Amino acid sequence: MAVIWKAIFWRKPFFDPDVIDGSLSYAIKANGLLAQPQLTGSLHIGEGHLLDENVFHGIELAVADSLIEGGNFWQIDHHIVNVRRFLYHNRDAYDVNVAGFIGIQEYAPMDLKVNARGNVLAELPQILPYFIDPKTDGKLYARIVGSRGNPLLDEIDLRFTMAAWRSMALFRRSPI
């Protein structure tokens, strides 16, 4: 017997509107024994803003729940989230696709595979302000393992067919 909860909110803030907003729909499904049900869920946020700066076309998330070995279902920190699919489509710039698993506990295991396509350096100025308005056409693959409390970049492959950006001057000439 399956129990299904569904809710749809249109153009309402999701969590904190300063962090993310958009049209939201989600579904949560519980199946199996009441003492230890199997949970799955999906979420879609359309046409929104992330951190008030990044306009996105859509975010999709599909997850399944599992437990650490010997874990108790009713203890949240014993859970591991299997990310079946996470898609982020940034309007006119890039797409990110993530799959893998991540523990709720800070030091529970994590293994995420990240694939991005398009202007994969679009967010670089947020990290390194030296780079201004990067325009790239590329692919990024990264594998992040370890835990949320101790992440390790296990593998990365970054390839471009085109890259251009402006940069800030590091030094200013002083008048003589």
Key descriptive features of the protein:
single chain; mainly beta; 1 helix; elongated
The average pLDDT is 84
Judging from the principal axes of the Cα atoms, what is the shape?
elongated
In angstroms, what separates the terminal alpha carbons?
82 Å
Percent of residues in helical segments? Answer: under 10%
Spatial arrangement of strands, main beta sheet: 1-2-3-4-5-6-7-8-9
Order of helices and strands: EEEEEEEHEE
**C-alpha-based Rg, rounded:** 20 Å
Could you explain how this protein is built, in words?
With about 180 residues, the chain is mainly beta. The chain is about 0% helix and about 65% strand. It is built from one helix and nine strands; from the N terminus they run βββββββαββ. The chain has one helix at about 125; strands at about 1-15, 20-30, 40-50, 55-65, 80-90, 95-105, 110-120, 130-145, 150-165.
Short description:
The chain is an all-beta fold and about 180 residues long. It has one helix spanning about 125; strands at about 1-15, 20-30, 40-50, 55-65, 80-90, 95-105, 110-120, 130-145, 150-165.
